[in-house]
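2 proteins. here.
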Amino acid sequence: MNARRLRYGWQNSDRPWVVTAHHMFDALHNRRPRVTESAPAAGGPTLAYAGLAEGLSHVLPFLEQRRGPTGQRRRHTTSWADIFAGRAAPAADILAAGCLPGRVPPDPVPRSLTLPLRITLVVPLDEGATQVLRRVSRKARQQHVRELRSRSRSLEVATLDKDFDLFYDGMHVPTMRSRHASATRTVSRATAHQCLFRGGVLFFLREEGERVAGMLCRQEGDVLVVRLAGVRDGAEEPYRSGTYMAIYVMILQWAADRGLAHVDLSGCEPFLSKGIFQFKRKLHPEVTLPRNHFAGKRLWLHVRRDSPPVRDFLVANPMLVVASDGGLEAVYFHDAQRPARVDLRWEAPGVRGGRLLDLDAFMAGQPTTGQALPPRPAGGDGRTGRLR
């Protein structure tokens, strides 16, 4: 086994001994956690991230993107005691800390919430290929059925190295560049070829015979894991036309036809304002914790100051939190001037409910469970939990 495959397994394997070794490595390298402070270029709260390195590459860039342009980053080391006592990164309005299992304070700290460090979206295929479309939100399903014939769409499985070159260089890289710019995170070309393409499955969606989108997946037992995606030249039109949704639907049908148990749509940060979460939610996935070393890791969010920019930021970014019994629930902040962003939907299997948190009470450090949000009426085929 070469070095690239070892690194890929280290980051993604769910084998218990790999997970344990990963946690031991993380504990050793986080005895003196690093803090990165991120000041805004103009307006918005000052952010800080501390702890596990994965959050520095995943969580902080997302929070910065939601906050607005970054003016300056400053890094230093601190201690876990200072992080939890509020002494680390004194200039930060909001501090997020990536924590190992069991590292989050056992007693609630005022103005703080505990989130999963990462979530995973998984579609079960127990109902078979003929039922895949019934999982899809009504509007997306109607568009898919309408355009399947009008655009002459078909799914292709490709196996040649030149097919991989076309996908990686002509679809994946341009798409990441156009949609994420400097915040792009992906695997290297060599790793994608060795660890995903070899032994994985490369799909192309054809329209009128032309390859317009692709996805590179890895099969792990009876689970198909979607890893890399892209559209030709990174264009925006496929997102408006339904092309991007179509390739997901057709891959789900392909996997169900072959008797696979699940399709893992990969994960994202635990915020409902994450665009990929809202897009993939249309496929009615189960929201779960990852099976690998991320499973027990947590994101501890501590609001340090009360100000209009801080309140604006919290209201604009509803989040998934870990309840005391380990379940996931959605939290929406609001106050008299800022209505909750309930247009960012939470309803999905694995999220047991949503609740409103009043910012005045939260900022005053008062313990509150908030007002429960009832699920919105079912859409789609009318079965429980189906989406509109």
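next one coming up
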Amino acid sequence: GKYAFALTSQNFEDLIEPAQKLQMAMLTHPGFASVSSDLFLQNPEIEIDFLREQAALYGVDVMKIENEIKNAFSENYAYLIKGDTDQYKVIVTTKDDSKRFHGDLNELYVHTRSGALTPFQSLAKTHSKLGPVTVNHINNMNSVTLYFNLKENYAIGDASRFITEKAGEILPPSIVGSFQGEAATFAETMQIIVLLFFVAIFVMYAILGILYESYIHPITVLSSLTIAMFGGLTTLWIFGQELSLYGCIGIFMLLGIVKKNGIMIVDFAIARHREGLSYEDAIYAASMARFRPIIMTTLAALMGMIPIAIGWGADGASRIPLGLCVVGGLIFSQVVTLYVTPVIYVCLEYFQERVLDKIPFFARVLE
């Protein structure tokens, strides 16, 4: 499978049933193309249940029974005979043809404390079962790994969410579930991208606040980012594309381009307002003066992204989300922000004048 989800525990027996239940839940889900695991219960085993109370009546200690089984079937090294030139190991065991089948255990006898021989079948019960061919480990813990592939239109993010929810319902506290391979890389990457997104917003706000010497005008510029992100994500949804790593890169590129458009308008409006124009006239003049350079830069970015959006070139299909994010976000934000940004600018200027200027900490310095 392309992706993997691992279950780990101290006791391997605790992993078998939860792993099988989780695998069955994944197989019945329509988003998974295939699900397999490294749990192969094909190794014949014999499980022994000691009858402790009955053994006590016979005067037999359970440790004595375990030692008799070990001596009979494990080829236990007991003694070393040293000669003049050679050494010989004494191994206590039964004959090879007497330890191959389940019934051979019933031929074993155990000495009681009085020295009498008691048949093994009167001291323990046995039954056959199938055990694991191999026991895998992750970080020194017993593990069972589920491997899965997804159908073409099913996103890894949705699959990760489904597996996490099902694991929370099925797995007991003693078992830890974690993604491995590409699924783990995707989860870690998305966490880092979300953190980088908020860091980028904070850095942009801080730099713009220093540039304009204002608490509110950075918000005017950054308000266009939500519109652009909505346009980019909606475009991905319309064309049935996933928000892959390339799509996230496209979102970051889109934020940079759209922020630049907002800066061009707000910066010009602040300069005109300082020259004596009212807020409304300043933002109107800025929108008219900056309309042509904004359209030119937007068209240049669109022309560069259209080949990527249609999947042009080698391995172009994987980069389609990047192009769609930028193209869709630019078109949508270009239409909307030219009307929304001036309104936000005027509203925030009124808010600054009537509210923030009355608070010494937030009041702006009048020149």
